[in-house]
Design a protein that fits this description.
alpha+beta; Beta-Lactamase; Alpha-Beta Plaits; 11 helices; binds guanosine-5'-triphosphate; diguanylate cyclase; Nucleotide_cyclase; Diguanylate_Cyclase; EC 2.7.7.65
């Protein structure tokens, strides 16, 4: 289904050869090189893998110390990247649509001839890159909560599994914080659904502001949020959970609508698996609600 969508997008508009028309010696380049690069790029829809292929091909034109691709779905670097004296930047454009920026670094100068050859390689990449970008965007959309932009339940399930496995393998702590807003329903009932949405957006901002970029943040739907804390011991995890609840409680919109947050925290123990850890955090959240809401309980 996703593949068909990508295929449709790829076929929906005619190719732009604007970049290629700038090439003076386009006809002179060996056809086999061109075919082999295109066919290699068609073997994957993974942007990083495509960049690695292009990096290998560009390396035959000029030894590169780094190759970086900047896109709307993130930045990518070819392996072994190192900055060097000479830099060359190219904007990759297809059908008047800017796909990405490619930044080359080398210890050797980018002469006009080299630049032309790189431009040819780039033009070979445009369709494959656009398809990979569409796939990446679809994947991101499938894993995000549309309202807040936090990870959704599906993404949580994947991330939680990975976080628990990693913690076990590295013998490191892993904590789960489940957060549920208190008295949220009355915001919808009294002030309307859009006021409720504003509160949910404010809570997402509080989570982003209070937690580190490496922490994984999710909204399950409704007024339920989750945070996976990797590498934090019990004391730090509790501190973080309390700080997060305080940030939500002190947000002006939450105060205006008398919404607070309750949280349940659990830390992975040697006997527990993912399901036990989740139930422990859920039980602690229930205990926080039972204790009068607006508080944190540790399992
Ligand atoms: N505005 C808005 N409301 C939503 C959304 N998703 C779910 N809800 C509402 O969120 C509310 C969640 O219900 P509860 O958790 O029982 O509400 P509560 O008042 O916080 O209950 P306590 O946790 O016991 O304090 C329901 O009224 C849902 O309709 C959404 O995306 N936007």
């Amino acid at each position: 289904m996703e593949y068909l969508l990508v295929h449709e997008v790829a076929l929906s508009s005619a190719p732009s050869y604007a970049a290629m028309t700038k090439l003076q010696h386009w006809q002179d380049l060996p056809e086999c090189l061109e075919q082999s690069l295109v066919s290699q790029l068609q073997t994957t829809l993974d942007i990083q893998q495509q960049l690695n292929i292009v990096s290998m091909a560009s390396g035959k034109v000029l030894p590169l110390s780094s190759l970086t691709l900047k896109t709307a779905v993130g930045d990518f670097s070819a392996s072994g990247s190192r900055l060097a004296d000479y830099e060359h930047r190219s904007v990759l454009v297809l059908n008047q649509q800017c796909l990405a920026e490619l930044i080359y670094h080398s210890d050797h100068a980018f002469t006009p001839m080299i630049q032309r050859e790189l431009l040819l390689l780039e033009s070979e990449w445009l369709f494959a890159l656009r398809n990979a970008l569409v796939v990446s965007r679809l994947q991101q959309m499938a894993l995000k909560d549309t309202l807040t932009g936090l990870g959704n339940r599906r993404f949580f399930d994947d991330s939680f599994e990975k976080a628990v496995q990693l913690a076990r393998r590295n013998n490191e702590p892993c904590a789960l914080v489940l957060i549920d807003l208190d008295n949220f329903k009355q915001v919808n009932d009294v002030s309307g659904h859009s006021a409720g949405d504003d509160i949910l957006l404010a809570v997402a901002d509080c989570l982003r502001d209070t937690l580190r970029a490496t922490d994984s943040l999710f909204r399950f739907g409704g007024d339920e949020f989750a945070v996976i804390l990797s590498g934090q011991d019990t004391d730090s995890a509790e501190l973080i959970a309390r700080r997060t609840v305080r940030a939500i409680n002190q947000h002006y919109l939450c105060q205006q609508h008398e919404v607070t947050a309750s949280a349940g925290l659990a830390l992975l123990t040697t006997e527990q698996d993912r399901k036990h850890l989740f139930s422990a955090a859920d039980g602690a959240l229930y205990a926080a609600k039972e204790a009068g809401k607006s508080t944190v309980r540790v399992a």
